[in-house]
Amino acid sequence: MSHDCAIIGVGMTPFGKFPDQSVRMLASAAVQAALADAGIAPAQVDQVYFGNAVAGLITGQEMVRGQAALRFTGLAGKPVVNVENACATGSTAFWLAYNAVRGGQADVAIAIGAERMTHEDKAVSLGALAKAVDLEEEVPKHVGSGSGSIFMDIYAEKTRKYMAATGATREDIAQIVVKSRHAASLNPVAQFRSETTVESVLGSRVISDPLTLQMCSSIGDGAAAVVLCSPAFARKLGVSQPVWVGGSVMVSGTPNGELEHCSIRSTLGVYEKAGVLPKDIHVAELHDASAPAELMYYESLGLCEPGEGPTLLRSGATGLNGRISVNPSGGLLSKGHPIGATGVAQVVELTQQLRGQSGPRQREGAKVALASNNGGSLGKDGAAGVATILHV
């Protein structure tokens, strides 16, 4: 695996609902934490990639989101690239920073994802999320009409088909939530830190059959930041054991289904780029915007054979410190999903796992990690997919 780009600093805020916190406040805290972790000053950063998806719709801030949010971080005056790519916004910012470093454009780059999704009128927040589709595309009338969420209706439809094809049960899907909440209960920055039960998950309000409230990721606020650098800078700084980026691949969707789903193409692409196989992965952060998505990703990303997602879950192999620990942060379901921050937060969690800093969530002996993050919907496909391999 390659050693041409290192991660030397990570930081993030707690995720949750913080109506008194602005994007600027959240981003500033994450940047400060990441720079402190790296042991560098803002002046040493060459390029800045700032991810935010919905500020324009929630607060009205447009066009110069990064420059405004980072005004008091010491990064003013640096090249700031504003990034927006639906739920893959943060991972797209990371992908850009990675390519800037490995391509020799920057010795040090920082990728930031920050989002404030809460609004006094929840319809505004849901309406912002609903913009992550092609608005000129005709959508079936039942999508978004019942749940209020276009994406949860889409997930529900996929889930019904998946259950029919594999024999997955509602209890299996609820068990994903139980696993997720248990991990989050051990994560001090997670949004939902109370454990739950299968009965509680199944008894919560139905959002879009068969999805119940606890099976769906929530609206939330938060920020995360990652400092990347060249091997030469890491040596100069005296970093003895950096986390290396083995590869990062981004693709866009093909709306008529000409190619496989963007999540599959990005992940298979990064396996090839990094020279790893699914069996080599020790810990993974996957895009569980709804609980059944985790089961589906087990299969589509090669972590098990087609149709074996429920069996893999029941085996315990994807639990904390399992053979492949999946979403030890709590994932989008429980750590939270402030959409512009999610992709960067995945990298924060995996970096800490590879450093052995995850405490009771630690996957012992973790050497290779996978982040898979997707965004938006375009016809039969997602709109964007980003997958990244990290290693030590």
From TrEMBL:
A Pfam entry, by short name: Thiolase_N
Domain Thiolase N-terminal per the UniProt entry, residue ranges: 6-230
EC numbers, comma separated: 2.3.1.176
Enzyme class name: transferase
Matching CDD domains: SCP-x_thiolase (cd00829)
The species this protein was found in: Cupriavidus numazuensis
GO molecular function: 3-oxoadipyl-CoA thiolase activity
Transmembrane annotation, as ranges: none
UniProt keyword list: Acyltransferase, Lipid transport, Lipid-binding, Transferase, Transport
Protein name, as recorded: propanoyl-CoA C-acyltransferase
